[in-house]
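Protein entry
_____________
===
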Amino acid sequence: MIQLFRLIGLSAISLIILAVFAAVSLKNEMLYAAMGKTTNLAEVARSTALTFHEMATRGEIDDASAQSLAKSAIRGMRYDEGEYYFIYDGQGNELVHGTKPEREGKNFINEVDAKGYAYIPDMIRLARTGGGHIFYWFPKPGSETPLRKVSSVIGVEPWGWMISTGVYLDDIDAQFWGALRDFALIGGFSIVFVSIIAFLISQSIAKPVRALAAVTARIGSGQYDVDVPATERTDEIGVLAGAIRVLRDEAKAAERLRTEQERFNRVLRTIGAGNAVLFHSVEEEELVVSMCREIVETGGYRMAWIGLVEHDEAKTIRPVAVAGHDEGYLSLARMTWADEPRGRGPTGIAIRSGQPQVNDCTEVDSTMRFWRNSVLERGYRSSISLPMKGARGVLGCLTIYASEPGAFSTVETVSLLVDLANNLAFGIRATRERRRREEMERQLNQAQKMEALGQLAGSVAHDFNNLLGAILGFAGFIVEDTGGDDPTRHHAERIIAAGQRGKTLIGQILSFARRGDLRRECFSMTELVDETRALLAATIPTTTQVTFSGQVEPMPVVGDRDQLQQVLINLCINAHDALEGQPGQVKISVAPTIGRGDAFTRLARGESDNPVEADNVWVDASGTAHVAVGSFDPALSHVSLTVSDDGCGMESLVLQHIFTPFFTTKNKGYGTGLGLSMVHGAVLAHRGALVVESRVGSGTTIEVVLPVSDESDGESVIDTSVIGSSLSPTGGRLLLVDDDPNFGDMLLTALERRGFEVSPFSDPLSAIVGLRRHRDDWDAVVADQIMPHMTGVDFIRAVRAECPDLPCILCSGYAEDNLDDESLKDAGIFALLRKPVDINELMEILSRAVAERGRAGKVGE
């Protein structure tokens, strides 16, 4: 009996100690939770202040505005139904008080609480040394009664601020004393009750007591899910068991409160990190990748991924970012937002409904049945799927997985994460809009550059053609005046050859600028390639084997024969250069266009209008880089002129720039960077397309695709070099007008050497005066197009008004004169010659003009 009472006494003492310990532990847990909560909340306010400081550092706003905005933001922040923040500077001046604005601007360095404790200096000291917690007495908002309070203190170093917020401990104390009182009452009642009936139950008390003692020990070690035995008994053991059950439930509630607080703190950390990502990310890829990474690393979640909605037939969800323990899950899941089995999971439902979907427990959630085994293997015990809503519907979904059940069970957690997903959707839209604006600006700049280059090309062509005309003409005089063995004749012939090369270069510049003349005629691509063989044999060294293959059929196209021949020559020269001096092959073929593959699909969709866009270049699984540019109509027949080599090949970064003017990978002095630019301009001017594929170390293939035309489709071509009939050469008196002294002197000399009597003028107004003085003495007029005071066309109109039957020949070296057959006929122009003028051609035209005028005069008689 004594042992029983000893046992009862020891049990009672243990129960009291355990109750006190549990109550103290509960109080400490609640205190630590409150301190942790204030720390996280202070961190949120600090992050807000640092965000505005970073904006000031980047120059987006000044520092004073940043501080003002930060104060306003923190002053308005609330939590827990009215709790607030306050800020002091290093001298004790209160900068912000959430509920008592009258305190702002005043110094409280010497203020003491109800116990006489000057807490402000200690707060400032803690803020300067990394932060911490302060216990003091302070009244609640709307009250004058001081209550005990704990505040978290943290510093904002750049501005020398101390940010603090706190919670009052009266609720914790009340819960502590209430729990202690309950434990005391239950323990006291149990002891009294057990003592009275101890003798009666002495035979049945030992075993249940030992069981309850064991349960109590397990509760003390943190095992709150243990079952308490004997609770159904109505005796002392039942009372004791009930007390222990109350103890267990209180401890379990405290643990649940701590867990929920930790989860809430985790969400707050995640939100803070996510907002920082939104502030700093510039590109969409950077934004989504960084967001997933911060959710996993800062929030401590198992895995996070972002998928964007595809409006294809399968309604695919395309993953764009993932972080954490994925382990191939997304590739296996193959999720969709269609209303079918793979689309009826949380992510698919969230996208279709526009509402967040919470999976509290993977093991029992019905929406997870399709993926349950794979998900559990990777440790995903709960999840939340958050739709990212845009202006036109749902953009995609942010899905987060946790390693414990119920991680997203509270309304507050879901609400905060929904806000994060909406902010993420806004960030994606903002980055896309910024990129769209930047792309439009880039395209505008590119168009302006191309326009400027085109204008430059026209100006260069005009001036350079005058120079070339004079050089070729005077060099021709030397050739005419010297014998075949004279070294001077040899030098002159080399000058002429160099001038002809310059003439070709001008033609390439004009073709690049799309300002050269496009002479339309119908011809066979097969014949064009055959005609070019001899030119290629003289141009490309014999170390490079050039082979030809293709159709025997004509394969007619309508276009500029000379320009397309230059396209073929430029492609072959580039192919030879790609061999880098080593023996190799250049293959040329002409065949009907097959029109299959990704390149032609892009061309047919009109997705390849700009050749220098990185989006137009792609690399296939074999490592081959591709680019396609131009237009292609699958409904029409096309012919392909293909040039391929087995040279060094090009990587995708080089392929992005091959049609860019003046871009070259050749050594200095070996390339102008205009060859492929001319090819690009000429092919697009013929409404064609270019398809390029290249692989480093394997070579390059360039396919020129042109629409095939029937003979009847070709437009009739008026020969703008000669408008007149063939007549026998004769002399005559000429009126010559050209403002360029070198070119004018060359023409004067050439005409006089061939028997013409020439009156030169450098100004069209003076020439008109001279014409009127000797109205009937002229046989023909030769005039430049670009002159001071008036153009050549206007000058000839004035001449024809004075002398309607006087033949007029126009010379032009300008690229933008827009002279077509109709305008030539309207102005009464006998012939148009392009500078640099071929002297023999000019002589032939003049002879015809003079002879034709003379014959017309005889008929009139």
Observations:
- Residues 712-730 have pLDDT under 50 and may be disordered.
- The chain has 22 helices and 24 strands.
- Residues 48 and 449 are 44 Å apart (CA to CA).
- The first strand starts at residue 86 and ends at 88.
